[in-house]
């Protein structure tokens, strides 16, 4: 068989280890997963109820659900005509890449950032051009603009950035957006957890702002993402999207989640509170914690991150060793913010490992 040449340059996405896997391997009864930035409070009960209410599973869903786009539009402050949906941000991003990226093109990625950006770029036969972030992990505008050439089609801006947790400066985004005519893809997967967002940039002709129901809304398994796009992009988007990207039960769940903002508010407030508490506890035992506006924190570990991750696994805690993330170093670990009792177990284990 003749697979595409580009595949030789790609390693598959590595998901976080599953709780079951770790229980089995280490013979543990209780395992806490703080590795995939999932919502520790679960899905909104009203979303679960709405999801279960749909039984016509033999019928194809609406290809471009107007009712959901309407509700999303109200939520983000844009017209429904400006909203596109997809199978998670991952699915939306795939469609946007299908619209713009040809083999040999360049995609500019400030590193470190979300690993899937590199994978998708290479799947398209394009080059992932890496621009190192500044020490505080915000984008170095000069180096980024220098990296843009005729072949550059997309610049990826993740805010709050995964895995570093920082938000991007508005002035930086403004400068990027206004000084080049390439598409700026703003990934706000964690936008709800942050004190600032970049939605206003969706007013520009060359900007897409993507969001998801996977994180703050707790619907990761349903694969619902969306983006605010220029009208011109929306027209083209419908040409390349798979015909039925979103199932009807998923749509119902998303709509119910948008209607019940109380749950969202609870999740966001709790997460912020716990994020500050966990950060403070870790700093007290001498662990470097980077400031975060997301539902996770990046830490610099006193021993190699792979060893620390292994020590935590033995104690039933799964975190994300970032040493293999492009742009991270051997001491970077990303930890999702869980429920209070989960975070306490993590802090105890850290004290045990670091202070002994
Ligand atoms: C989790 C995550 C995504 C994927 O979101 P889905 O909507 O579940 O596909 C996209 N971007 C970043 C930065 C993420 O961390």
How would you characterize the overall build of this protein?
With 356 residues, the chain is an alpha/beta fold. The protein folds into two domains: 5-42 and 262-354, Aspartate Aminotransferase, domain 1, CATH 3.90.1150.10; 45-260, Type I PLP-dependent aspartate aminotransferase-like (Major domain) (Aspartate Aminotransferase, domain 2), CATH 3.40.640. Helices cover 39% and strands 16% of the residues. It is built from twelve helices and 13 strands. The strands form three sheets. The protein has a seven-stranded mixed sheet with strand order 2-8-7-6-5-3-4, with helices on both faces. Strand 9 (288-289) and strand 10 (296-300) form a beta hairpin. Helix 2 runs antiparallel to helix 9, helix 3 packs parallel to helix 9 and helix 4 (88-100) crosses helix 8 (231-240). The longest helix has 24 residues, at 261-284. The chain starts with 18 loop residues before the first helix and ends with a helix. The mean pLDDT is 96.
Defining key terms:
seven-stranded mixed beta sheet; Aspartate Aminotransferase, domain 2; 16% strand; 13 strands; globular; binds pyridoxal-5'-phosphate; single chain; 2 domains; alpha/beta; four-stranded antiparallel beta sheet; Aspartate Aminotransferase, domain 1; 356 residues
